[in-house]
Specification:
34% of the residues lie in helices and 23% in strands. By secondary structure, it is of the alpha/beta class.
């Protein structure tokens, strides 16, 4: 396990060790909630559910639905898709505003914590075993900061600062930085997306909706053929999932995912330089772990390390893929345990 640290604070009104915890991963599309029992050393999952986020008016409603007749947990921690400031957050892509104090008041003043969802993922690294991680590039074993990026409904990015003994997670909103083209195709894609969105961030290409954007660009601007049967399936199923599932046989899907993984490698390399992440890059989210076999290792590493004079630095940085889809939940639970 990775030694994770946590900043001290007096934000917790309880000094009693928790026995039950509610952890939530609140996303723009779906929300995952889990109940854990804690025996002082290990977490044990006792209940878990998934809900469409937009079916609820706010976090209080979704928590009450999840708990049902269950007793209130000792502590609650929400990992949310959006920036968190002083215990308050606005969820990206969902009209929710969350206040930890107000939420606590609705649950008998039990401690409630709110962290960014990628920050929760970063804390979750403390709970992972070797089986939960796929080493894409072993690199060189060395100390230093860690960086995390997770393409899903959006693109989350976080860092973990190495102080010599522990890693301290911190959130960023780096997924909303400007997309920067490298090739002529990238230039044309940028123009295409600018017409559609105005500002074009990395999230517009490195996410589930980003996969759809690349596919539509290839169909509309590069005249690549999209078979009728595929379009029929896209009309009733998740479009990004249909593209990735057919990326072995359908040319436009093959090219879409090739471009997506090149952007993933480029974005990971950029993040590694910004964070000087010599301790490694960790890639999470729901897309990449399901498509590991579609990654061309040679092409990925070429795009990852081609940063001019910084190429030697990047060649030594390990790249890992997080396989455990519950990392954000266990990270939120870990935070709730250790914050006080």
């Amino acid at each position: 396990m990775i030694p994770i640290g946590i900043s001290s604070g007096n934000s917790c009104p309880s000094t009693q060790p928790p026995h039950t915890l509610l952890a939530a991963d609140i996303g723009g599309t779906k929300s995952n909630l889990a109940l854990y029992k804690y025996d002082g050393s290990k977490l044990a999952l006792t209940k878990e559910e998934k809900y469409p986020t937009k079916d609820f008016k706010g976090p209080d409603a979704i928590i009450k639905k999840f708990l049902g007749n269950e007793a209130l947990p000792d502590r609650i921690c929400l990992g949310v898709a959006g920036p968190v400031q002083e215990g308050k957050a606005k969820i990206t892509n969902v009209p929710w505003e969350i206040d930890a104090e107000e939420l606590s008041a609705q649950f008998e003043k039990h401690p409630v914590f709110i962290v960014n969802d990628l920050e929760a993922n970063a804390y979750g690294l403390a709970t992972l075993e070797q089986i939960d991680i796929h080493p894409l590039h072993t690199g060189k074993e060395q100390q230093g900061n860690i960086a995390l990026l997770s393409p899903g409904t959006g693109l989350g990015e976080a860092g973990l600062f190495w102080d010599g003994t522990h890693y301290f997670p911190f959130a960023t909103e780096g997924g909303h930085c400007d997309f920067s083209p490298i090739t002529e195709l990238d230039d044309d894609l940028l123009v295409y997306l600018r017409r559609k969105y105005g500002h074009v961030s990395w999230e517009r290409v490195l996410s589930g909706p980003g996969i759809v954007n690349i596919f539509n660009f290839l169909k509309e601007e590069r005249d690549m053929d999209a078979p009728g049967w595929l379009l029929d399936r896209m009309a009733v199923h998740d479009v990004a999932a249909e593209i990735s599932e057919n990326a072995d046989t359908v040319a436009i899907c093959v090219e879409t995912m090739r471009i997506f993984f090149r952007y993933l490698a480029t974005g990971a390399g950029n993040l590694a330089l910004k964070m000087k992440a010599t301790g490694g890059i960790y890639i999470g989210g729901g897309i990449v772990p399901k498509n590991i076999k579609k990654i061309d290792y040679g092409a990925f590493m070429k795009a990852f390390r081609e940063k001019g004079r910084m190429k030697p630095l990047l060649e030594d940085i390990p790249v890992h893929i997080i396989l455990n889809e519950k990392t954000a939940l266990t990270g939120a639970a870990w935070y709730a345990i250790n914050k006080c």
